[in-house]
Amino acid sequence: MTDAVQTLVESLQLERLELNLFRGITPDGMGPRIFGGQVIAQSLLAAYETVEERVCHSLHCYFIRPGDPRIPIVFEVDRSRDGGSFTTRRVVAVQHGEQIFNLAASFMAPQAGFEHQSDMPPGPHWSELPDEAEMMREFMKTAPEEMKKWAGRERPIEMRAEDARNYWRNGPKPAVAQNWFRCRTPIGDDAHMHQVILAYASDMNLLSTGMRPHGVHWQTPGSQSASLDHAMWFHKTTDFNQWHLYAHDSPSASGGRGFIRGSIYTEDGTLVASVAQEGLMRMRAKA
């Protein structure tokens, strides 16, 4: 593993405090607030610590308060139900004595049944596209020093996009986007960890798609954006060491919020997960 991937895997690990109580940390240098994908991944891991022999097939969560990266997060798991076919868990993440996030997840044993899926949308292959991390370092050369330090760090998730070169240019764009992504170096054979890190990465670039029609991005002066909720359905197990296509579209924005959908495909076109998210997306009122 590279240092970035090793740091990610280690930072997602939880300390068990009690039967249903866990503590997690945020690695240094991750920015002024906790990345939403981190708390999704750690909450899913906390739920898995109380589940045997079943696999998560869906999760639904709310971001309630910004996370403080300087202090640990406490995760409390409610064993809501252990049924014949499904296991349900609720996880509440707490900092400073207040909820910052909650997650509900459902688990079941693998079963045979009807199968169909939508086709992977056409687009360029990952091998034809540039590494977004390299491009960001180039774009951030003129940014403030603190932002350079944060944006220029090694990233555990490798991402490639067709229009990465145009991301920072102003002007409206269609409310659709495609990103290829994978874990930058191998993360082992634990299927749960592959799912957890896929959940971590699923929070990346969604709100950017919702902003595209309005010609803004997260560095546009006066813009505000934050994930409000996040839902994810795992259709099949997958190997996140391999390239996956993350196709987004944003069918609606209104009331200061944007709604974005995502579909995650393996390189051979298998749909392995679907995502939906609503996020705060607005310009600050001028004083």
Description:
This protein is α+β, with helices and mostly antiparallel strands and 287 residues long. The chain is built from six helices and twelve strands. A hairpin with a 3-residue loop joins β4 (73-82) and β5 (86-95). α2 (36-48) packs antiparallel against α5. The model has no long low-confidence stretch (mean pLDDT 89).
Number of helices: 6
Q: Level of helix content?
A: 10-25%
Helices and strands, in order, run as HEEHEEEEHHEEHHEEEE
Biggest sheet descriptor: 12 strands, antiparallel
Oligomer: single chain
Explain briefly what this protein structure is.
Helices cover 19% and strands 37% of the residues. The chain is of the alpha+beta class and 287 residues long.
